[in-house]
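Sat 14:20. Reprocessing the chain from the morning session after the first attempt stalled halfway. Input below, unchanged.
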Amino acid sequence: MLTKGKFGKFGGQYVNEILMPILIELEDAFEKHYPTPEFQEKLNELLRDYAGRPTSLYYARNFSKVIGCKVYLKREDLVCGGSHKLNNALGQALLTKEMGKTRMITETAAGQHGLATAMAGNVCGLETEVFMGAKDIIRQASNVKRIKLLGAKVTPVNIGMGVLKDAVSDTLRKWTGCSTNTHYLMGSTVGPRPYPEIVATFQSVIGKEIKKQIHEKEGRLPDTIVACGSGGSNALGAFRPFIKEKDVKLVFVEGGGVNLKADNSAAAFKIGKPGILHGAVMQVLQDENGQIKPSRTRAAGLNYPGRGPEISGLVDRGRVKASCAFDNQVFEAVKVMCRTEGLIPALETAHAIAYMMNNKDEFTKDEVVVLNFSGRGDKDLETIVRYFDEA
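Finished this time. Tokens:
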């Protein structure tokens, strides 16, 4: 049974009582402002004229020959800033203005969401502070420089493993003390209600465009949509308008890390189980005592131990197929996409590419597949070059 904020057994609001009035205020504001023509006009203008939407749906002829079916790339790497993250950031920045708040805080791993939040904050006239794990600051140095250049404050998070999970925990904690004038711009479809719904709604512009564009190009719906994910924002953005289209197969590819037997494999759908993380029930990596386990992949954006409530629910009821790709396969996927289409994918996106390369037998020559190309790879360039230099 689907109730508000619940996706089967996933979702909910498992938070400190101090956060409850803040979440109620946010949900009320979203339900009041988002449907109005005035809000839609402001959002659509920013998405079109600032973010550069609609992004193209590109027929990747050369990569299609490698896979053996017709593959289209939804080019979210062409969104201003280099990833899909700006779709949600612009929406929540507008919502922040409507709530009369002057400041936004957020967390980021790959840096793309932090960059998008800084951009959205500036264009909407809001002060921005970005919390980032100390390890992620080092490996995503280029995006950290961009965020600082835009004038946002970057605050290192040194608790725990110094990665995304720790940054989310720290941001939630800081929010309780500054919510009067500050909105926490959650970057993925995780967290307590109403965040999963808000983020998925703003990201669903991706799937709406896919539906229109594939009809124009093929005269029909795609057979399959493939997207990488951790919390699930780009995947749900692409999947949402197709969830009721039962003939469209939806594939979610998470980071496997080195392998499934590694102690820090990030494949929560393969080796995790339902648990509470950051205010909601979701599929989570846990140890034998129920403690959250650290995860590690070469893609910082997939290095989160939980899968958001909605994507967890969709996998649980069999509507979405969950799979994973391993680090060595991901680097090979980067090379193939570079050589076939001249596109350097983000390491996150490369997980979806690797899935298609590893599972060619699933696709027949007449199939039409859309791969959500969620981000560009310049942020990962040093990691990619170092891998091939050391190989």
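The chain is about 45% helix and 20% strand.
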